[in-house]
Design a protein that fits this description.
This protein has about 290 residues and is of the alpha/beta class. Helices cover about 35% and strands about 20% of the residues. It contains 9 helices and 13 strands. A 7-stranded mixed beta sheet has the order 1-2-3-4-5-6-7. Helix 6 packs antiparallel against helix 7 and helix 7 runs antiparallel to helix 8. The chain is globular and about 60 Å long. The N terminus is likely disordered. The chain binds zinc ion. The site of zinc ion (ZN) has 5 residues, from loops.
């Protein structure tokens, strides 16, 4: 290979790496260290290397929300064992992305039952995430609107409120603890609309409005630290502000490049982000 070609391959690899790292951190390589934090009584969350995992302990087993990448299985199990000797019985999946559902391939054979929306399962089976590993495994039990798990006298609900990040995002509710897990309907500081995965910026705020009707005060987002219902509302309002701004520009006839520049300047998108790859072309079509 010529030196120039080698340089191009390296730059190209760095570009792809940069896109993913911007959102999920540490794509490839050894499993990253994880941290576990107490949220409320019997509820913990595990951060690091992919989406936040909720850990709900009951007297008959543990219920998780999401399971990161398959490479994180041992580290997740070690963190769970640091707070309980109960086995993991159920995993409620928020959506099909590998940084939230990649661990299914390890947890299913280990004896956990995995539950997701029917759409999230289809998105895995149809490999809708272009940069996901080929060996991903979908949930074995699915629902379309709402489901609940009752274990050890405790209840966890999962509900599909509408499109947003993808077309199959579930949000999860721990009613006794007035806490929810949003999946990537709240993640980071700015929304990633996965249009190839059926996402919708036009619907996103409406979807969050429905979820806000649950009675809760604490929010485990898909990525980032545990936060409050008030901050979820702020996030929702920022999504709506972004939609209105982008729709205005698109209706003025601005080019995709120009809309991208405004998203960079006003909403913190970076040139190599997944927002630029997955969200911008779809927004141009959806909002015109
Ligand atoms: Zn996601």
């Amino acid at each position: 290979m010529s030196r120039i070609l080698v340089a191009r391959v390296v730059v190209g690899s760095l570009f792809l790496f940069g896109c993913w790292i911007a959102y999920t951190q540490n794509r490839g390589g050894a499993p990253a260290a994880l941290t576990i934090n107490k949220v409320k009584d019997d509820l913990y969350e595990i951060e690091g290397d992919g989406g936040n995992v909720a850990v709900y302990i009951t007297s008959e087993g543990v219920i998780l929300v999401d399971d990161k990448y398959d490479r994180d299985f041992d580290n997740i199990m070690a963190k769970v064992k640091s707070v309980t000797s109960q086995p993991v019985k159920y995993i409620l999946s928020t959506h099909h992305h590998e940084d939230h559902s990649g661990g299914n391939s390890k947890f299913l054979p280990a004896g956990a039952e995995i539950i997701s929306t029917a759409q999230a399962r289809s998105n895995i089976v149809e490999h809708k995430q272009s940069n996901a590993s080929p060996g991903m495994v979908g949930a074995r039990v699915v629902f379309t609107q709402e489901t609940a798990v009752f274990l050890g006298g405790k209840e966890v609900r999962a509900r599909y409120f509408g499109r947003g990040h993808t077309n199959g995002d579930a949000m999860v509710y721990f009613p006794a603890l007035r806490t929810i897990h949003t999946g990537d309907l709240m993640a980071g500081s700015t929304p990633l609309i996965d249009y190839p995965g059926g996402g919708s910026l036009a619907e996103w705020a409406k979807t969050l409005d429905e979820a806000m009707k649950w009675d809760f005060d604490t929010v485990i987002p898909g990525h980032g630290p545990v936060t409050t219902k008030a901050n979820l509302l702020t996030y929702r309002n920022n999504v709506e502000k972004l939609r209105i701004r982008a729709a205005g520009l698109i209706r003025e006839g601005k080019s995709q490049e120009d809309v991208g520049k405004v998203m960079q300047a006003e909403f913190g998108w970076t040139p190599t982000s997944l927002q630029m790859q997955w969200s911008l072309p779809g927004m141009m079509a959806e909002l015109k």
